[in-house]
# Entry
Amino acid sequence: MWPTSGTDSDFVVKVIDVYPGTYPTPLPLDGQPVLPNAVKMGGYQQLLRGEPFRGKFRNSFEKPEAFAPGQPAAINFELPDIYHAFRSGHRIMVQVQSSWFPLVDRNPQKFMDIPKAKDSDFKRRPNEYSDLQN
# Structure
């Protein structure tokens, strides 16, 4: 993984169950009208697991480390288990992103004490994801 052009970055990994496009939409209860904005289940994306990880803690939670900008770095962490069975026709989607704001606080992409960051510390930094083992 080429994690960042900055010295810190967050990583959010999501596992999603994607319903088939032909999945039936639930019928309303007896006597209830079909609402025009009712949820359509065909193609629905059900979030199963989403885990954020702050890159500076990739080697130790006790001793955070800065990234060397533009240098590849291995980032390994395990997603907690979840009891879920993918039904026939469903697909597995995996998303990797570097922000989940406002669920997780923003990262200035700079190795620093984030609660002390000023507005001017926050910069956009690209992340490239690749498999370093190949």
The longest strand covers residues 45-54. The radius of gyration is 20 Å. The beta strands are 10-18, 45-54, 91-97. Residues 8 and 112 are 8 Å apart (CA to CA).
